[in-house]
What we know:
With 150 residues, the protein is α+β, with helices and mostly antiparallel strands. It contains six helices and six strands; from the N terminus they run E-H-E-H-E-E-H-H-H-H-E-E.
Amino acid sequence: MPNSIYPITIYYDASCPLCMAEMGNLMLRNREANLAxxxxxxxPGASPLPGVPYADLMRLLHARTVDGDVIRGVxxxxxxxxxxxxxxxxxxxxxPVIGVLADALYxxxxxxxxxxPRFVVRWLFEGAARRAAQHAAASGSCSQGQCTRR
Length: 150
């Protein structure tokens, strides 16, 4: 994991069940505090990320690296997962064909994310979040998206 971009700030839509499930999973796994989380939906119409319009933040996941670079979409997801030691989850998105498909499909999924049935969201993230919570409880305490070891 390249530490040069961490910590990064993830700008996400907490009004979206899919987004919240994914971010909740990442928050539980954020034991090294490589990620900070900002709920864009908490301030409707106002962008918490200078230079990026609110509508853009609500359209795609964005992240700001420690040196101020803004990444969006699949690269932002990849950086988030790498930041919590789960780079293998998104590694296929770096492969030539799969990467091109992921970059093309991500905006479509993001545009329709509010329509994804909750049972699909639970199927995708419930087991992962349960394992993350169990691991966090066994190894330390978590508060406000940050976990510390005992």
